[in-house]
Amino acid sequence: MNWIGIRYTLVLGALIGLKAYADFTERSQEQIFVAGLTLLLMKESGQCGLSTDGAAPLVLAIKWPCAFSLDSTGKPRVERFENIPIVIARHSTPKPVPSRDCDSEQQAIRLIDGRLEASSVMRSVSCFNGTEDQKNFTALFRW
Description:
The protein is an alpha+beta fold. Helix content is 20%, strand content 43%. It has one domain. It is built from 2 helices and 9 strands, in the order αβββββββββα.
């Protein structure tokens, strides 16, 4: 095999690997257990969706891919306010170089009587490099 054939094989292998990674990322779902239920993040019409134990998803107002806010140990964080569990889903897209900012959005979701309720969306230029302030779990809801 000549150099052209070897290069072609390497490039083709890399493209197949990238496609497999993109497909895996597209299908990946984050999950967390809250109040005896499994909450799953999933892609729903290009948006972030959240489902409880396989039920029809609540479509959030933030883009896919999304992730749960993490605690200091790197696990999805659940806060409680008046004994109501609350999680935060977030999406972040880096701005073009040379900027070190991101276009980010997050939405808190609370579980009340077995149903999901989403807050308003908070937008920022933060790239989510740390844990969320506890207030972010409750301040996004307008009671």
